[in-house]
Amino acid sequence: MVCAALAVPAATAAPPDVYPLSSVRRGQVGYGMTTFQGTTPERFEFEVIGVQDNFIPGLPIIMVKSTDPKLATSGFWRGMSGSPLYIDGKLACAFSYGFAFNKIAMGGCTPIEYMKREGFDIKRRSGPGALAPPSTMAQWRQITPTGAVEDIFSRSRTPWLFATPMPTRPAQPTDETMVAAVPLALGGFSPEAFAVVEKLFEGYPIAPMRVGGGGGRMSAKDGPTEFQMGGSISVQLIRGDMSAAATGTVSYVDGNRVLAFGHPMFQAGEIYAPVASAEVTTVVASAQFPFVLAVPRRELGSLVQDRGSMIMADTKLKSAMVPVDIYVTSKAADGSPAEKGEYHVEVMDDKFLTPALASAAVMNAINDIAPDRDHVTAKIDSYVKIKDLGELRFTDYLYANDGAGSVIGGARGLRALAALAFNPFKPAKAERVELRIDLSYSADFGDVVGIQLERPTLAAGRNTVKMVMDLPDGRRVTEDVVFDVPRSLAGAQVQLEIGAGDAARLDAAPPVDLASLLAAFRKLLPGNVWAVTIYLPDEGVALKSTVVRDAPVSVMDKLAPQSRTPRALPFKPMARSIQPAKRVIGGSASMLVRVDPLK
C-alpha cells in the first residue's frame, strides 16, 4: 500500500477571497452554491441571523436562513454539509448544521477561516498506506481484557465489530437541537446488516441510509474530473459488490487541497480513504431530516484530515483499500445444495474501521445467502495476509439456533484483524482478507455436560473417556475421546480438561512482541477437534515468550506476584492431545483425577 499520484487534472482556478468572521452581521444577505441534481452546482440565496460563539468549544458558527424557492420544499438537507456561502462575493462559511422538523430553511455554517486553519496549518504525519503507531495498552485490553491470546478468539454471539475500539466520538453542539450529518449511502446491504452498521456509527456525524448509491464497480471515465466548490464529494468506506459512501459538499479548493463538510466524520485527525466526485440523483424532502441521494463517480484523491471543522482531501494522493473476498455456500438439512454466492469488496485501510467494515460486509454476505432464522452449522475458513509478515489461516466450526448471521462473531480471521490493528508491540497491517463460509441448515451441535471415566483413575499412557453432550433436539449422547497421559505423571493428581479445540487454552507463553503474538495465533487449534488438556502439578515459567516447564522452587520464589514483569511470568504447564470431533462442540468440562503409579 503506497502513496501514489492520481492521473487527474488539478484544479487551476485561484482560491476565492475569504470574508472575515469579524465582519459578519445580522441581516447581511448572500448566496450559496450546492448541487440539487446531477453534478452542476446551483445558486441559492440566504440571510445571516447572527453568530453563535463556542457552538462547539473553540468553534463559532454563523446562523443563516433562506427563503429561496429552491429550498422551499426540502429546507437544508443532509449532504448539503460543506456548501460554500458567500457575502459580498467573498467566501464566508460552509453550511454544516441543521434542525429537524424545520418550518423554514435555517441552520449553521462553519467559518471558512477556521476550516483553513485546521485543514492547511496542521500537517499530516505520513501518507496513505503508512503504518499507524502502536496501540495503547488500554486499546489492547479492549480486545483482550485478560491479556490471554485465546480470549481474543473466544466464541461470541455478539458481532465482533461492536467489541473493537472506535474513534472517540466528536464533541456535540452546545445547542442540542442542531445536528450535523452527511448521509452514508449503503448499497447492497440487507436490513439486518444495515441495522448493525447504523448501530456501529451511532453518535458520529454520519447518517447511514439504506438507499443504495455507490454499488457496483466505479468507472474511471464517469463523473467530473475535478472537484469544484459547491459540487458533491464522496468518501468511500466500502466499495465493490457492497458499498458505503459518505457524501457531502466541497467548500474550498486551493490547488490539490480540498476542504469539505464543515464538520467532521469521525474527528479522527489524520485518516485516509478514497474520495470521489459524486452525482446527485435527487433530494429527498423528508419531514424530519431531508437528505440527498448521490452516487460516487470518479476517484479523484485521498482523504487526509478529519477534524472538528472539516474534512480535507488531497487530489495528488491515492489511498489503497483492503480487499475482502467472501465465498458463501449453503446446504439443506439433508446435505443437498441450496444456494451459493461470492462477494468482492474493498474496505478503507484504517486501524479503527477496517475490522468493523470487513465484519459488516461478511455479515451482509451471510444474511444475503442464508436469511433463514433456523438452526445452522457453519464452517468458516479465513485467511489474512499481513504486510511483510506472512499470513494467518483459521478454521472455525460454529453453531447458532437463530440463523447464520449470529455465527459471524466467532470468525477468527475477522477477530485477527482487530488484534493486529491494536496490538501494543509493533504496527501490523492486513493487506488482504478472504473468508470461505459453508453453511448447513442442521443442528449438528453438542453442548458439553461432563466427562465419564471408565474407571476412577487414569493410566499412564493411552486412555479413553466418554464426553457427555446435550443435542439441540433434547437428546443426550456420548462420544469417545482418546488421549495420552505422559508416563512422568504416574502417581500424580492432575486436572483434566476436555472441550472444543478453538475454545481451549493456548499452550504457549504470553506474547512479548509481535513475532511471538503471531506465533501464538498460528498455534491456535481448529474448531473441529477435541482438545484434551492435562494441567501438570509442577510450576513453570514463561520467560521472554519461552516456556520453562519445570522451574526450580528458588526461581518461582523470585516470580512472586509483587515482582512480576511482562517478560517473566508464572506459567501453568500442560500436556495436550487432540482428536477429530464428530460435530460442533460447545463448552468444556474438567475434573481432578489421579494417575495410577507405574507397576
Give the topology, please:
Layout lengths: L28 E6 L7 E15 L2 E8 L17 E4 L2 E10 L5 E7 H10 L15 H7 L5 H4 L25 E2 L2 E6 L3 H10 L5 E4 L22 E9 L2 E12 L2 E4 L8 E16 L6 E17 L2 E5 L6 E11 L5 E12 L4 H17 L6 E11 L3 E11 L11 H10 L8 E11 L4 E9 L7 E10 L5 E10 L7 E8 L13 H10 L5 E7 L4 E4 L2 E3 L4 H6 L9 E4 L2 E7 L3 E3 L1 E7 L5
Parallel strand pairs: 8-9, 16-20, 21-30
Antiparallel strand pairs: 1-2, 1-4, 2-3, 3-6, 4-5, 5-6, 5-7, 8-11, 10-11, 10-13, 10-17, 11-12, 12-15, 13-14, 14-15, 16-17, 18-19, 18-20, 21-22, 22-23, 24-25, 24-31, 25-29, 26-27, 26-28
Structural class category: mainly beta
Integer average pLDDT: 84
Spatial strand order of the main sheet: 1-2-3-6-5-4
Number of helices in the DSSP assignment: 8
Rg computed from alpha carbons, rounded to a whole number of angstroms: 29 Å
| Largest sheet descriptor | 6 strands, antiparallel, barrel
**β-strand number:** 31
| Shape annotation | elongated
- Give the DSSP E fraction (strand runs of 2 or more residues): 35-45%
Helix content: 10-25%
Low-pLDDT ranges: 1-11, 213-220, 540-571
Description:
12% of the residues lie in helices and 42% in strands. It is mainly beta. The protein has 3 domains: 1-319, no CATH class; 322-440, no CATH class; 445-594, no CATH class. A 6-stranded antiparallel β-barrel has the order 1-2-3-6-5-4. A 6-stranded antiparallel beta barrel has the order 10-11-12-15-14-13. A hairpin with a 2-residue loop joins β11 and β12. The longest helix is centred in the middle third of the chain and has 17 residues, at 353-369.
